[in-house]
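Question (not urgent): is this output format expected?
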Amino acid sequence: MAVLAPFLVLCAFVLEFHHVEATADTLSSLDSSFCLGELEVIYPGLDIDKCLLVQEDLRKKVSTLWKAPRIHFSGADETKVYVLVMVDPDAPSRNNPKAANWRHWLVVDIQGNALKKGQIEGTTLTEYRPPTPPKKTGFHRYQFMLFEQPPDTSVSLAEKESSSRGKWDLSAFITRFDLGEPVATLQFLTKNYED
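Got this back:
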């Protein structure tokens, strides 16, 4: 049962949309509990290795200047391949997530040996889009989930999934390819840099 607890927390984030406010300098306990494993998201001026709020002076950079981050997972098995998912479960706002799980980035067939070095060598199914929360919608969670890709499994998006990034059924995607529980998760919260 203890093994299931982290997955149940993850499911609460993916399937349910709880309204939990974070103050300007702290995360709620629910937001903090999302991060598991040794995943690291590295932007040019921001190294994220735990759940956090993006500082006000970095919000514009993460939204407009910086390209896709480097991803490092020290726990990667060099003989395995992985799937990386980045979503915004709060689209268009945390109070009204009608386009929840907006897919910001999806990479499959990521080589474990490269991931261990902080590189993404794989097949991009959804090109990276930076966090761009709309004005006056408060903080959005940007969640990174890393899954082990089952051997000899070709992971792809269905035609309907490819045509839209919003309202992505992440749970169905995970089930369809038997991805199971993520091996690592990480999130940061940010809001529109003009707010």
